[in-house]
Specification:
Layout (H helix, E strand, L loop, with lengths): L16 E5 L3 E4 L2 E4 L3 E5 L15 E2 L3 E4 L4 E9 L10 E9 L10 E3 L6 E5 L6 E5 L2 E14 L3 E5 L3 E4 L12 E4 L3 E5 L16 E9 L3 E3 L4 E11 L15 E3 L3 E9 L2 E14 L3 E5 L3 E6 L4 E6 L3 E6 L2 H23 L2 H52 L4 H15 L9 H10 L4 H19 L6 H35 L1
Parallel strand pairs: 18-26
Antiparallel strand pairs: 1-4, 2-3, 5-6, 6-7, 7-8, 8-12, 9-14, 10-12, 11-12, 13-16, 14-15, 17-19, 19-22, 20-22, 21-22, 23-26, 24-25
Length: 498
């Protein structure tokens, strides 16, 4: 077995001339081993312009070359489509290429451009790879972002920045140096007017729609759950509220909406599920008509339509309603008999029966009222529990991932939804539905995007930055709790009383 150990020294000459580094003696196992002397010739710093030194350190906007301390470091950015339609996904790719790693305890820090005119979603972390460019082998790290332009016209994506850390041993390089990419122009096309349906609501991508009910045969007054699911490739945030058919004998309540997104081969895919509760008020056979949604397919460059299938329902007479009808018919019959026979006993029995039913009705109303009050108080308890839980999690947060998950769990618990699939845009939409002020919404979304930056970019975040973000999250969540408590409970109470 052979073993080697290396000592590396940085030697910086202070003046011109010829210098000799003497031999170095290394004792081992009773023997002395020594190096040979090394002669170094130091030339003037300023050289003639016509003389090129292949080992000199060079800087440019997007490239740093220092063969001794780190080889070549450079950055570049690109998009896969420079003329997309409004609402169509394009992919922004930032690339960091280097031939060696700078000798530093810090990592390069990536700063994404603003991209305010796009809806964006960070794609999964890419594995570093090796590329040979012009005969030089580079290690390449990529950060990909899915962008959906929200307006037409020429849009400029500002340069991205990569801050290189201070290199160990460089006394004349005390501040971080930055590399920046070139700005990128995107010409966003409007959707064509030719063939545009009058009911088109701006959905762009490739989608399909399905619908189903949990049971197609129920009694009057029993609940039916209908799920309508739209899935495909594109920004599901742009999916509209569905236009459900109005049916006199079927009451359809507002849906509960659940979004799930993921990236597959660099494309944002996902689904939105609309969960409806349907209450039939009359027996018979009914048909839930088709639900149609138009969308624009950017690959085919044409408008398409997706539609559900008809759903047949069989509604049976309800037991409670039947008993009331039977009782009403028997009461009428009994009244006729009493009028005919004029028996005091039957009149007394019938009157007692009416009184008894009246008492039962009063008791039922009291129980309904108590149940309604418990429903009104339930959101307040739910909000308090969600807030207590998030404070506990935030106090134990060890990373920006923990911070983001805590916020997503709070939003999910506050609105009785799952936190799976939540992202900053969905949180913004949900809080707006809860009438939370825009200042609080913008602050919590900013914190979530800061978490995404720390989770998906090659940045070594400091503990102080995490602690600051946690305290900021606590402050804004307290404000959101108060807003939801004042407005959310009243809204829920009105819904229950109806």
């Amino acid at each position: 077995m052979s073993v080697s150990k290396t000592w590396s020294y940085s030697v910086i000459p202070q003046k011109e001339g010829s210098f000799t580094i003497p031999d170095i003696v290394f004792p081992l196992d009773g023997k002395n081993y020594q190096t040979r002397p090394i002669t170094i010739t130091v030339t003037p710093r300023i050289q003639p312009r016509n003389q090129t030194d292949p080992q000199k350190r060079t800087w440019s906007r997007n490239l740093f070359n220092d063969p001794f301390y780190g080889g070549t470091q450079k950055v570049e950015a690109s998009i896969d489509n420079q003329s997309p339609y409004v609402g169509e996904q394009i992919t922004y790719t930032f690339r960091y290429l280097h031939t060696a790693v700078l000798p530093s305890i810090d990592s390069p820090k990536y700063q994404s451009p603003p991209m305010n005119r796009f809806w964006k979603s960070q794609l999964g972390q890419q594995e570093s790879k090796i590329e040979v460019i012009s005969g030089t082998q580079f290690r390449v790290a990529e950060i990909k972002t899915a962008l959906f332009p929200m307006m037409t016209g020429s849009i400029t994506i500002d340069p991205a920045t990569l801050s290189l850390p201070t290199s160990i041993g460089l006394s004349n390089w005390s501040t971080p140096r930055q590399l920046t990419t070139e700005a990128i122009k995107v010409d966003v096309r409007p959707l064509p007017e030719t063939g545009k349906p009058t009911s088109f609501e701006g959905v762009v991508g490739k989608y399909r729609i399905t619908s189903e009910v949990d049971q197609a045969k129920v009694k009057v007054g029993e609940a039916i759950t209908m799920h309508v699911r739209i899935s495909g490739t594109g920004n599901i945030e742009t999916l509209p509220e569905l236009k459900t058919p109005e049916m006199i004998d079927l009451t359809i309540y507002d849906p509960k909406i659940t979004d799930v997104t993921q990236d597959t081969d660099g494309k944002i895919q996902g689904s939105r599920t609309y969960e409806y509760v349907i209450i039939p008020s009359k027996s018979g056979r009914f048909t839930i008509p088709v639900i149609e949604v138009f969308y624009f397919d950017p690959d085919k460059e044409k408008y398409e339509i997706m539609s559900t299938n008809q759903i047949l329902l069989q509604i049976l007479p309800g037991t409670t309603i039947e008993s009331k009808i039977t009782w009403s018919d028997s009461s009428t019959s009994a009244t006729n008999e009493m009028n005919t026979e004029t028996g005091l006993y039957k009149i007394f029995a019938w009157s007692f029966g009416v009184l008894f039913i009246g008492v039962i009705g009063i008791i039922y109303r009291i129980r309904v009222y108590n149940h309604q009050q418990s429903q009104v108080d339930q959101p307040k308890l739910q909000q308090q529990n969600a807030y207590t839980n998030v404070l506990t999690i935030l106090d134990q947060a060890q990373s920006f991932t923990d911070l983001a998950n805590a916020i997503y769990n709070y939003v999910g618990d506050s609105f009785d939804n799952s936190s799976v699939g939540l992202n900053p845009e969905i949180v913004k939409q949900q809080l707006r539905l809860g009438n939370v002020p825009e200042l609080s919404i913008d602050e919590i979304v900013r914190i979530l995007r800061e978490c995404d930056m720390a989770r998906f970019t090659p940045i070594t975040s400091q503990d102080s930055e995490l602690k600051t973000a946690v305290e900021q999250a606590k402050n804004v969540l307290e404000k959101i709790k108060e807003e939801l408590g004042e407005k959310g409970y009243a809204k829920h109470a009105n819904k229950v009383s109806r």
